[in-house]
Amino acid sequence: MFSFGWVGPKHHSGKLFVRLALVVGLGLCGIIYLGWHLPSLQIPRRVQSLWIQPHRRLIVFGDSWSDNGQYPIDPPTGALLPSREKAQGLVWTEWLCLSIKCSQHDNFARSLPPSLGSEYTNAVIDSSLLDKISNFKNERVQPLADLKTQVAQWIRFEKERTSTGNARDFERNGTIFTLWFSLWDLWYFSKGTNDEASEAVNRAMDALFEQLGVIAYHQSARVKVIVPEAIDPTFLPGWHAMRTGPFGSDQRADEQRNVVRLVKQWNEALNERASTWEKGDLYISRTNEWLLDQVREQQLILGSMSDGNGLGTNGSPWINVHSGCVGTVKHPSPQSKTTPSRIDRCADPNKYLFWDDMHLGPEAMKMIGKGIATDLQESGDRFWGLENVSSSNKTNKTDSSEQ
Fold this sequence. Notes:
Helices cover 40% and strands 11% of the residues. By secondary structure, the protein is α/β, with parallel strands linked by helices.
């Protein structure tokens, strides 16, 4: 039998060890006390976070609606680097991160700057599906990282973090993934025939859940994912400007009828598959209903009316729900390769539902992010990685509005 002990005079070494332990213990108590009671120092937030806050990490996949322009790996360079004006405010995932007090926000979403000549070129779930849309093949599109590529970048980033010792095990249960595509997928799919577009939606949904499975496989803890529903692109100012307006490509509104049908197909398929997915927990946000309510309420208020759900009686935060704060005044013909000219932005972007033809405004982004955070907090431990996390699957839905 082996025995282990101090080498040397035990009596003096024991006293020295006790004294050292006492000094270290008093020092730690002092640090905690200062961190807790002296708000003027930088220590409090750090110490209180370590002791009472679960560590939460947000990992973001998506398009320009989620891309905050900060990349942990493979950042775009030169003319491919997107930029956001300060007046645009934060994207919804940043508001979500602030609201749930996450300690890390890793963005893998991708988008392109308008300066490339087309504001409507963006990331999709599966870029290979665009080749099967007959009326889309001749359009000038800069390749972007689709969902599969973004997930692969995340896997490589995680391996690099592990190899360098930057991965923190205590974050794993508190990690939440966000995945919001669909807008640009449906924008492009709607250019095809009904059969082409419907098949593309089905295959996009296959690709989405395939990548959710990849994420779950590479995540040691039970995966937690936020997936907002598809919004109806016809509500965007850009739909009128580029499709059904005087210079648009959809004068008979065939594409408009097509995309409305595709939104319904997308959201029904998403909810149906989510209800039977057993590899993690999915939170499905009813963003399309939320957007519709914003437009409908302002219209009811202007008409001095209300509906059975109370819309029209609560007041609207918007003065404009039909055009962007940064709008367009001159649009090229469908055959033109020129970029639409811009007018100066509005006086108060927070009062406009849309920032430009294709993106939500700063206040709308805030409402979505904070609304989802409120619903998650009310859902209890499921998404926070605390004790008693249920292993059963549950699909949550929300209006994504700020409480």
